[in-house]
Q: What sequence folds into this?
């Protein structure tokens, strides 16, 4: 059975655990799909239909408030009506965008959640599901609530995408499509798609068309096949900035912005590239502190550089210097926060990225 989360989300079942082992799904009662990540909600719905043997259209009815008024009587009738064509599977009623429906029918849903006479399964697609409500507690006891949100981790007071967990999902989906990704390629795919599961699935299918079966997909493959012109140019911005050629890097950045690229999307690619330099610096310093004699080449390899990338990255890291490279994590975090907060208006989008590039400009030589 899928494992339930701990702490404040203890009533929610992890979507990835559920898809792997949906045996804990009740045949009757209430199932809540919590979150606004469309692809994960769709995967949960498919797993529900498959598990309950209701993959043909007849046993499933979808109530969409954008298409019709969703009345309690219609929904209740649906989950208490036998299929016209028989079959062992229960009737399934799915209410999309169900937040308003839950608010309007909370008392009825609480009664339904603990009913022993219900004939089918009611699936509620909601964005909010407070664990301290009576309904959430009853569904946790008698039904199931599945977490379909973007996986996140806490760092200080902020939440960030759980890239390690998402990478594991990418590797499983890649295998499903007959290809293999290395960990760096999986991380880059996340950055390019801004952690959108739907886009990641779409790009994995695209990679499967270009890459021969069972061949490993490299960072370069993701860059060329998924990234396209804009992403390629954003990596050129990083290369120029790392070389200390801030003026040329700013020119390329302006070209990208003028072409309509959103700064947040550009920052994903720029951040991924610079974080590897930050990781290499941390590996180098950690080795020094352990009393060993590290090399830049080995540190860069540990950070995910390889082949000609290492040859090019060594002078880049030397140009930055230990002090500046050691602050890259802090600068990237500050840039991310600036893009989301005080520089979030279109007229000021460019400022945090330009500031980041200028931090890497070649330093004047001291006599």
A:
């Amino acid at each position: 059975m899928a494992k339930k989360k701990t702490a404040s989300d203890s009533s929610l079942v992890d979507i990835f655990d559920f898809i792997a082992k949906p045996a804990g799904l009740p045949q009757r009662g209430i199932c809540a799909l919590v979150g606004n990540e469309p692809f994960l909600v769709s995967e949960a719905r498919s797993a529900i239909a498959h598990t309950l043997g209701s993959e043909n259209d007849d046993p499933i009815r979808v109530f969409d408030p954008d298409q019709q008024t969703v009345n309690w009587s219609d929904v209740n009738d649906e989950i208490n009506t036998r299929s016209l064509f028989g079959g062992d599977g229960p009737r399934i009623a799915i209410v999309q965008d169900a937040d308003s429906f839950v608010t309007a029918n909370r008392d009825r849903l609480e009664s339904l959640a603990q009913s022993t006479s219900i004939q089918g399964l009611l699936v509620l697609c909601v964005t909010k599901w407070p664990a301290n409500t009576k309904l959430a507690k009853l569904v946790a006891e008698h039904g199931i609530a599945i977490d379909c949100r973007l996986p996140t981790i806490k760092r200080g007071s902020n939440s960030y995408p759980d890239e390690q967990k998402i990478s594991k999902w990418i590797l499983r989906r890649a295998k499903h499509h007959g290809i293999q990704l290395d960990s760096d390629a999986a991380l880059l795919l996340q950055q390019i798609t801004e952690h959108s599961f739907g886009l990641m699935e779409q790009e994995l299918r695209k990679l499967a068309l270009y890459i021969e079966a069972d061949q490993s997909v490299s960072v370069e493959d993701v860059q060329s096949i998924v990234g396209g012109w804009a992403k390629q140019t954003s990596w050129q911005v990083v290369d120029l900035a790392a070389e200390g050629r801030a003026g040329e890097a700013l020119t390329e950045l302006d070209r990208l912005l003028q072409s309509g690229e959103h700064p947040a999307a550009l920052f994903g690619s720029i951040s991924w590239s610079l974080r590897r330099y930050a990781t290499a610096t941390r590996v180098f310093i950690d080795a020094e502190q352990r009393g060993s004699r590290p090399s830049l080449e080995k540190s860069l390899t540990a950070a995910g550089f390889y082949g000609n990338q290492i040859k090019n990255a060594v002078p880049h890291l030397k140009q930055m210097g230990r002090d500046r490279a050691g602050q890259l994590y802090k600068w990237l975090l500050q840039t991310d926060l600036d893009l989301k907060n005080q520089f979030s208006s279109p007229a000021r989008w460019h400022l945090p990225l330009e500031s980041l590039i200028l931090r890497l400009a070649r330093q004047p030589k001291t006599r």
Summary: The domain at 227-358 is CATH 1.20.272.10 (Zinc Finger, Delta Prime; domain 3). The chain has three domains: 11-148, 156-216, 227-358. The first strand starts at residue 13 and ends at 14. The chain has a mean pLDDT of 86.
